[in-house]
Amino acid sequence: MTKHKFVIDYSRPAAQGVFDGADFEKYLHDRIKVDNKAGQLGDKIKIARDSSNKITISANIPFSKRYLKYLTKKFLKKNTLRDWIRVVASSKDVYQLRFYNIA
User: Fold this and answer.
1) pLDDT (tens digit per residue) in 3-27
2) In this structure, are strands 37-38 and 33-34 parallel, antiparallel, or unpaired?
3) Whole-prediction pTM value?
């Protein structure tokens, strides 16, 4: 039984070659906290990365989408991509990483 399922779509930056999906997946795995402990997801949270440049997070504990946005922004900051890429909610449970529109 899955209570929450969220998707982070990083296809745009990945197509430009500036975003490493495997690195991001590992980052989420190490940083998401369960019972105030980071990196110990157990069977409560599953992180899956697929070939279409998406990461799916399935949680059967209360889990906030906002927390994923926070972690994504931290990852972008760590990799000095925060000035180029923004995190946009494209639907109720999907975040997309997009480039800022520089006019």
Assistant:
1) 899 999 999 999 999 999 999 999 9
2) antiparallel
3) 0.91
